[in-house]
Amino acid sequence: MRFIQSLYIAPILVAAICLTACSKKLDDPRPDTSIGKDQVTPGDIPLLINGMYKKLTGGFYAQPYVVFDVYSDDIISRQGGVANLFNPVSYDDNNPLIEDGFGNMRYYSAAFSAIGDANFIINYIRSNNLTALNTYLGEALAVRAYGYQKLGEAYGGVVITLGMGQEAIQRKQNTENEVFERVETDLKEAIPLLSSFASADIMSKEAATLLLARLYLNRKRTDEAGQLATQVINAPALVLSSNSFLNSFLFNNTGNRELLFRITEGPVPTAYDRSGLFTYYSPGTPFKGPSGGTGNGQTWLDPVLAASYEAGDIRKKALLNQYSSLAGGTVTFLMKFSADTLQSAASTFYVYPLIRLSEAYLIAAEVAAQKGVVDVTYYNTLRQARNATLKSNADFGSAPLFLEEIEKERRREFVGEGLRWQDMRRYNKALPFLTAKGKDSTRFYLPFATTERSRNPLLEQNKGY
């Protein structure tokens, strides 16, 4: 057998390509049997695509996945019980340490590692004019865009590398605007090449379109965001249903047409309810999962957010009220990722939803409100699927009031899924949040880890660190 492996050397990504021709997996690299990238054939591209997706999973798992939820006002966390790690009492205590606190370096490395694999695939297909592989080209472009979008949101400017050479070694980072321009370019090239949605485990036309709509919304290009969101809503392959909310967090979710893109981790060697996001978000004792697993009990929802769910809202099934000695009272724990509410402890895969159809409905509603229009159509469609009370246009006295309601609905829908911090920035809530904690806008971003700056001395640290 032969093996293909992709090696990350930050900030440049050099793919030392190896391949598992027999097992059809890229999770068992054997350096002693590896082959160079010049030996790759077109038939190897599907395996490289598989490896590219695995690289996303390699760092966007339990700890980094929650970074921007704990950063925001949605989640309160005393994870570890140590003030300089995850203490909401002061903002700095919630910040990652430059020496890779809070999974900071893992977040950065996983994105760049996936980008490195995507670069190889893109350049290989293009340089060999392999038009028959254009769907794979689209997937690689979309994953590269996703990686740079996450990096731009987290760090602002980062080094942009599009090749396999040495152009990114010891080079100052590109600007934040340049990073997002790269994301836009890649997604616009990817969308026409991609297939329509069939599985959440690969990038589809609809997933990439919604990702571009998200980019436009956060970049305040509302007309374009609204147009793309509407395209996704009208896509015949997708369905927003009452059964698919909790189902989106299951590993085995056959028939789900609402979860557009995810990464999964597994199989893992320990029981599902003893590690991963179950451990992070679930209550501590006396709560126990199906096989006796207990979470840390140190992370819970903002009480205002928790109180905003209606009694019949199916999303409330993913919440659990329990006394916490750490909080000194009853708090609300998030159970989206927990075995007791969703799947048996025998499941050994963790699920991390990244793009869901409901976002398109809320983007379309938000765009209308930003233009001064109160139109509850898309808002109600989502609430009907969540078994929540429907509203009329007359229930909101003005477009700004409706916009406030859309913000609340986004919090209820996406809590724990990493979108809140960008929402706070878009709604102009982030700076007051920071100011109240004695900080300023420099803390919109994460710091570059010390190890990364030692690799690239020209990489300038973000201000404030």
Poorly predicted runs of 5 or more residues: 1-34, 82-92
**What class would the helix/strand composition place it in?**
mainly alpha
- Approximate strand percentage: 5-15%
Global morphology: globular
Helix count from the secondary structure assignment: 19
Mean pLDDT: 83
Helix content: 40-55%
Number of strands: 8
The ordered string of helix (H) and strand (E) elements is EEHHHEHHHHHHHHEHEHEEEHHHHHH
Major sheet details: 2 strands, antiparallel
Kindly, what is the distance between the CA atoms of the first and last residues, rounded to a whole number of angstroms? Answer: 48 Å
Q: Compute the gyration radius: what is it?
A: 22 Å
What does this structure look like?
By secondary structure, the chain is mostly helical. It has a domain at 267-348. The protein contains 19 helices and 8 strands. The chain has helices spanning 45-57, 62-65, 67-70, 83-86, 91-94, 104-127, 134-155, 176-190, 205-218, 222-233, 244-247, 276-281, 303-307, 358-370, 377-385, 399-414, 420-426, 430-436, 450-455, and strands at residues 7-8, 13-14, 75-77, 259-265, 299-301, 319-324, 329-334, 350-356. A two-stranded antiparallel ribbon has the order 1-2. Strands 3-5 form a two-stranded antiparallel sheet. A hairpin with a 4-residue loop joins strand 1 (7-8) and strand 2 (13-14). Helix 1 runs antiparallel to helix 6, helix 8 (176-190) packs antiparallel against helix 9 (205-218) and helix 9 (205-218) runs parallel beside helix 14 (358-370). The longest helix is centred in the N-terminal third of the chain and has 24 residues, at 104-127. The chain is globular, with a radius of gyration of 22 Å. The termini are far apart. The relative contact order is 0.13. Mean pLDDT is 83; it is low at 1-34 and 82-92. It comes from Filimonas zeae. This is Membrane protein. Keywords: Cell outer membrane, Membrane, Signal. Belongs to the SusD family. Residues 49-217 form the SusD-like N-terminal domain.
